Amino acid sequence: MPGGSAASATVVAGPQAESDAGGRGGATASAVAGPQADGAGVPGGVSASGVAGPLAHGAGVPGGAGASQEGRVGLPGGAAAAAAVADPQVEAGAGVSGGAATDSAIASATAPHPQDDPTPDSPPQPLTTPGATDTTASTPTGPSRRLFVSRVVAGAAAAAAVGTVGYGTYGVLRGPKVKRVTVPLAKLPRAAHGYRIAVVSDVHLGPVLGRGFAQKVVDTINATQPDLIAVVGDLVDGSVKDLGPAAAPLAQLKARHGSYFVTGNHEYFSGAEQWVDEVRRLGLTPLENARREMPYFDLAGVNDIAGEDEGHGPDFARALGDRDTARACVLLAHQPVQIHDAVEHGVDLQLSGHTHGGQLWPGNIVAAAANPTVAGLERYGDTQLYVSRGAGAWGPPTRVGAPSDITLIELASKQA
Length: 416
Known about the structure:
- The chain is α/β, with parallel strands linked by helices and 416 residues long.
- It contains 8 helices and 17 strands.
């Protein structure tokens, strides 16, 4: 390209491009790109050669300006050119004779890219799969989610506990329901088939379960129209002075063959002798290690084990020693553990309470460990044991899994 300071730029790209760009008396810039570009030359001017390609062999400019792979550029008169060479196998550069020299910047495939060489102030970026969805921002953090779940579980557990206790309390205050059980006795005569005994235990009259509760118990018993009523201990939790009015409805109990009472361990905490006198005044018959001959069987009663500390413990010999063993015998004894003495004395049926059926956890565990039977009917040799869950509650006025009851025992004759 002739002419004073005119400039020309030639860009050649191709797989095997061979390019020349020449100009005299001016400046020439030659950029050659291609897999096997062989060179570009400009005589007598200024030349900057940029060579890119896997097998570029060089660019030369005689008497002008050149940039080599090593990064030198010389231009007469202070002109400068930078040659950028990018290729793993560049073997030759561009040379320029005469002039000042500046360092060239070479961008090579072997040189790391800025994004591949993070500075200490720039943490490495996480790798992501192309096309994948980044859910980091939308996913709740672990601790927050666990805290939320734990609060939900705790709230549900608290609500369940409150609901369970509330229902158990309602069940006690509502009053006991009647449970009907048939018990066959081998010695019972045919005429006594269907004989009904209303069994009530563990009423636990006190500050919470007072006169109104006693009235519900009495009404429920009378509605069964029993032949005999058996109150088998733990009637009260307090003195006659404090709870005499609460027990007053017991005077309304009605049964064809009367109502009978034996002491429980709580009577001995509350003044057993006074309560024995009080229930007698209300029309019940206390059986203190005593026996009565009923029309079809013997009815016996023994004191509770707690009376031993006062010299009034159970005495099976006194209650059962001289009876006619050909007759069926029903024994009233507050605690189920007294069944072993009953077996030794040939009792056919023992009626007990004391356990409350466990009442609620962990009372059920304690009751099972301390008693041979917690609730219901079981056989020990020739003797059967029935344990009532009781009509009231001791401690908290609530029951869980052990509803209160009054049991109507219906005796069955095997001769019928």
